[in-house]
Amino acid sequence: EVQLVESGGGLVQPGGSLRLSCVVSGFTFSSSGMTWVRQAPGKGLEWVSTISTSGSRTTYADSVKGRFTISRDNAKNTLYLQMKSLKPEDTAVYYCKIIIGANDYWGQGTQVTVSS
To answer: Which pLDDT band holds residue 102 (cuts at 50, 70, 90)?
Structure first.
């Protein structure tokens, strides 16, 4: 069974930093690209970032480019999202996501709240 477990969310002041983690099990982690998606209160899902299997290629939404960094440790089956210069509009539930064949797998999400 494929499982994704996010952690690292919390309450942070504007301008602060957080690092999210997503541990994957039940699947060969190194064989698939990984994605972070977020959902702000009352809004739809927003793609944040994607990383290739080796980590050599990364893409970002314009809203987070230059502030967020996606990375992965294939030896630890773990995906990361380093978030800096956080803004109130970054407040959301953050999910990691993997696509295996025709199926999407999601974690339970971790809440990030940016507020003074």
So the answer is: confident
